[in-house]
Design goal:
- Helix content is 86%, strand content 0%.
- The chain is mostly helical and 265 residues long.
- It is elongated.
- The N terminus is likely disordered.
């Protein structure tokens, strides 16, 4: 009995994931046609960006600080304290800030998208939009997709700066590393491609969060219980896909790129 329920749940999840792929295709087509609801887009950008800024920056500060605590002592013991800043900058830029910022946005914004649109679905507000000849994709999905596509990279860039600040504070005050050594190391290790790749990842993750959240909202059934289930499943699915696609993006972007350690040496 429980096995059949789990299989049916997995099948329903697979169907919704497939519908998310089709929704992404529809969004691309509508964007190419220039169908953008500007007022809704600005409202969603405010919800995704400024409203998520504080928690993203606080997270980045402590991630940078704890990463420095973990690596600085070991590097200093090996006589390599002069590369702590470079190692932190590479870790934050390539992986930590785009992924953790996307996780924060998925938990805070992706869940809100699923809950809002799911409530509209079960209360037949989306049917009312169709009666009024308003396409739900133009009115609901595209503004949220553009908002995440634009604001998540901005949040990631600000988180990168804040994470480096957290690492700098720990390195200078706890391990007595000179701030000039720390910053020069970060500058020599980082390349423009590292920053570009971080922003590309963040934009991709942002679009993924928006599509998953909106699709799970649009496919909600079963009243208030269904809204709750859609919200939870949307967040879990978004987190899962963020980690999966992060692997493939990293493999494509950094395979055969050479050694940042050799560049910074």
């Amino acid at each position: 009995m429980s096995e059949s329920i789990s299989k049916s749940s997995l099948g329903a999840w697979g169907q919704r994931l497939l519908s998310a792929v089709f929704l992404a295709g529809q969004v691309i087509v509508h964007l190419l046609r220039g169908k953008i609801h500007r007022r809704n887009t600005l409202e969603q950008m405010a919800a995704v960006g400024p409203d998520s800024l504080f928690i993203a920056l606080v997270t980045a500060v402590f991630v940078g600080a704890v990463f420095t605590i973990q690596v600085a002592r070991e590097f200093i013991n090996f006589g390599a304290g002069n590369i702590v800043g470079g190692v932190l900058s590479i870790a934050l830029t390539r992986e930590l800030t785009p992924v953790l910022t996307a996780v924060i946005v998925a938990g805070r914004v992706g869940s809100a998208f699923a809950a809002e649109i799911g409530t509209m679905r079960v209360t037949e507000q989306i049917d009312a939009l169709l009666i009024l000849k308003t396409d739900p994709i133009d009115y609901l999905v595209i503004p949220r997709t553009i908002a995440c596509l634009v604001m998540v990279p901005i949040l990631t860039l600000l988180s990168l700066v804040t994470g480096m600040l957290g690492g700098l504070i720990i390195a200078t005050n706890v391990y007595n590393l000179a701030d000039t050594v720390f910053l020069d190391s970060a500058r020599s290790f980082l390349s423009i491609w590292d920053i570009v790749s971080s922003l590309v990842k963040a934009g991709f993750f942002g679009a993924l969060i928006a599509i998953i959240g909106c699709n799970w909202g649009l496919t909600t059934t079963g009243g208030a219980k269904g809204v709750g289930q859609s919200t939870t499943t949307a967040v879990v699915t978004a987190l899962l896909l963020i980690f999966v696609f992060n692997f493939f993006l990293s493999a494509v972007m950094f395979q055969g790129q050479g050694s940042a350690f050799q560049q910074g040496a």
